[in-house]
Specification:
- The protein is an alpha+beta fold and 223 residues long.
- It folds into two domains: 86 residues, Class II Histocompatibility Antigen, M Beta Chain, Chain B, domain 1 (Roll), CATH 3.10.320; 90 residues, Immunoglobulins (Immunoglobulin-like, Sandwich).
- 18% of the residues lie in helices and 37% in strands.
- Strand 3 and strand 4 form a beta hairpin.
- The longest helix is centred in the middle third of the chain and has 22 residues.
- The N and C termini lie far apart (72 Å).
- Keywords: Adaptive immunity, Disulfide bond, Glycoprotein, Immunity, Immunoglobulin domain, Membrane, MHC II, Signal, Transmembrane, Transmembrane helix.
Amino acid sequence: MKMKLWVLLLVLSSVLCVSADALHGDNWISGCSDTDGEAVLILDDEAVWYADFNKQEGIYPLPPFVDPITFPGQYEQAVANQQICRANLKVTRQAMKDVPKELDPPSSLIIYTVLNVELGVPNILICHVTGFYPAPVNVTWTKNEQVTEGTSTSVPFPNKDGSFKQTSRLNFIPKQGDVYSCTVEHVALTQPMTKFYGEKIQLKIQFTLYNFTTTAISSCFIF
């Protein structure tokens, strides 16, 4: 999803609960634009619930063994908050119409695997981008310069400095010679950012040895 320059994203974030020893914290984030909306509950940097306004339901993204806490009426509340958010957005846009929009490009883009790489063994590539504002970014994966499927991208998460971070995942099977790329687009970038994974290794040892042997034979003949 590409963001247009004139779209203003309004995000409200607050700490709902922090333990006495400051080991755990919950954040509820509600945001909206003219065309999109976001509502997500985060526990220690992990999304435990978010609203999918396209499917019109609440999603619990953690595995079943985590025993997620249910939130009756949470999706309906998120929908109501979207109406309030868009009303506030209209007022805020009018009040800030002459204020330049803040645009911060991503400060970091890294790509890595979840597991140690073994050829032929299924693995997951992670593309992590952070330090951008506003949210979100658009992430595209390629395999050998061709756009590939089997990807998923998280909702934007806030950093402590007010910027955002997102993570995209690609299921893949490592094979010799395959090259993958993760490309990120953002309104603050003049051109996309790209990171590569994999390298074509061309072995020239046999060719070099053959040339060396031929030279040795020729030298002996001349002598």
